[in-house]
Specification:
mainly alpha, 107 residues, 4 helices
Amino acid sequence: MQTFPNQKTITIHKAKSDAEHPYGIVNRNAQQLAMINLKGEAYKFWSYLALNQDGYSFALSQKECEKWGFSKSTYHRAFSNLVENQYLTQIIGTPNSYIFHEMPLRD
């Protein structure tokens, strides 16, 4: 591999994966777009959601997000940011049900 003085060489060493510690797959274009569109905690929230399988549904609360170091206000701010950027869209007629889009709807 040819490198230049302004580049760093990185070798990936992944943690072992098993039934208790699965790997998630993310579309790299979607991830790069999220890195551009989202900041800080909203990107962290996006990452958590993007690592789930297509079609998977689960209940999520602010309390659960404390595991990520989110305060109540951080959770609500990050959630709102995902809605504003169209990564989360509310299901019509169901006030607390949302669909996560790996790519925002506008793209």
